[in-house]
């Protein structure tokens, strides 16, 4: 079981750019130790033969036919644009 001391917790907080008051470092060290302990427990689980999942519920993405369309409908395409000029999307200038 890995134990995190307060000095290591201080270093982790500094690397994460988190301001942790000195009196809360022991509690943070305990929480980090618990996380590492949990990760070690996960490493002990036998996952041989278990197929990887991307979700806890089996889902398939909705698919549509990849068909060629006319595409030449700029008025419909630009109808929801906040700002359109001369048949193009108008965006704020970001580079001088």
Structural write-up:
It comes from Rhabdonatronobacter sediminivivens. Belongs to the GatC family. With 96 residues, the protein is mostly helical. The protein has a domain at 6-43. It contains 3 helices and 2 strands, in the order αααββ. A hairpin with a 2-residue loop joins β1 and β2 (88-89). The protein starts with 5 loop residues before the first helix and ends in a 7-residue tail after the last strand. The relative contact order is 0.09.
Sequence-ordered SSE layout with sheet pairings:
Blueprint: H1 6-15, H2 25-43, H3 74-77, E1 84-85, E2 88-89
Antiparallel strand pairs: 1-2
Helix pairs in contact: 1-2
Notable traits:
single chain; 96 residues; mainly alpha; 2 strands; 34% helix; flat
Report the sheet with the most strands, covering strand number, pairing sense and barrel closure. Answer: 2 strands, antiparallel
Topology as H/E string? Answer: HHHEE
Q: What fraction of the residues are assigned to beta strands by DSSP?
A: under 5%
Strand order of the largest sheet: 1-2
Gyration radius (Cα, Å) is 27 Å
User: What characteristic shape results from the CA principal axes?
Assistant: flat
> Which consecutive residue ranges, at least 5 long each, have pLDDT under 50?
none
Helix content: 25-40%
Number of helices: 3
Number of strands: 2
Give the class from helix and strand content and strand pairing: mainly alpha
Q: Determine the N-to-C terminus distance.
A: 56 Å
Give the overall pLDDT as a whole number.
89
